Amino acid sequence: DDQGRVYLKAWTEVDKFSLVLREADEPGMDFMGFKVVDEDALRQLERDLMAYGCAVEQLPAGELNSCGRRVRFQAP
User: Fold this and answer.
1) What's the CATH number where 45 sits?
2) In the chain, how many domains are there?
3) Measured distance CA(53)–CA(47) in Å, rounded
4) Which of 27, 35, 54, 64 is least surrounded, with the fewest CB atoms within 10 Å of its CB?
């Protein structure tokens, strides 16, 4: 993409991708994701995370190629 990321998937996957690679100076993982079935499930997850005490950041649709709105949190 325009940020230098490469999107990969396995032969039988139905989603557009399941792994995103980018060049970096050090090895690591930026994040991992979980799919939800719809916007209501995402809103409920966000409420549950905040009730548990996790800070939640909303990320707009399209920030990651072919992805809808997302929420970011750090697991305790």
Assistant:
1) 3.10.180.10
2) 1
3) 10
4) 27
